[in-house]
Amino acid sequence: MNFGGVTIKDIAKELGISPSAVSKALKDSHEIGEKTKALVLECAQRLNYQPNLNAQSLKRGNSKSLGIVVSTIENQFFSQVINGIESVAHSKGYNVFITQTHESYELEMQNVRHLTFRSIDGLLISLSTETNNIDHLKNLHQKGLPIVFFDRVSDEIDTHKVVADNFAGAYDATTQLIGAGYRKIAHITSSVNVSITAERLRGYKKALEQHGMQPDERLIKYCPHGGKDLAEIENALSELFSESRPDAIFTASDRITTTTLSLLHKLGYKIPGDIALLGFTNTQLAEVLNPPLSAVYQPGFEMGKKATEMLISIIESKRPVTEFETTVLPTQVFIRASSQPVKA
Hints:
This protein is α/β, with parallel strands linked by helices.
């Protein structure tokens, strides 16, 4: 099924002619007059019709292809998710098309549109940090395209979702910093649009409150594009050190964590002597960084596997799927040198 909006039938309805006539006109068939061809081509351009690249697949009723939308594959977490997706997809005979949003809402919509033109059987998506409107996904879902969200999800579509236990990861990380003697713990996080931002912020605040510490909004900094732009994190650090010098920083994503570590070095801060750092990151280099980086690890590979299994179960179901679940996978906190206890 083609979920990509305008079809030959739409053009036929618009012009009041048969779909077969439209098809022949688009193929420049000698059976169709030049005037009709011109009308069809004008209408196709006006309605932004795109030819289906997998017509043969449509005749069989499926393309055995899955679309994937992530922010960027250079992110270790998403690379691990994709490995998990491919491990299941390939074993089930599905191909995958991988696209990157680079945290852009416009690119997300464009990627989804291109994937549907390829007649994918289903879509796996982690929303961009700019996305606060998912009408482009609602429209496809209403047309019958199976969609499964992972990591950054939305509650506006009733479907399967796979997430990490973001609240517990943030709670445990903040608790570890408190237990190590840190009292002014800053939090550098992502866009307010993203589901993981709220969950991790909630875990951070809960840990502070349970230890008798009132969350200070001056110590919470947001990066609207998830730290994609270096200036976002530079500004966050500049504001923190000028407004309310923290003794530890808890960071909420892969890119923010590793970039913060790099910037602290450039600014001349000793870690953890001057300031401690602990953050969400799946980088495989955490143990060999200077200093070894304390991290909240998400099961990326397992997330990709589970999300793909869920999507294929929808695709291959012989009956409409009406009951959905949200799978929450556990996180792990690894304590290394970057958040060692405060020396007396």
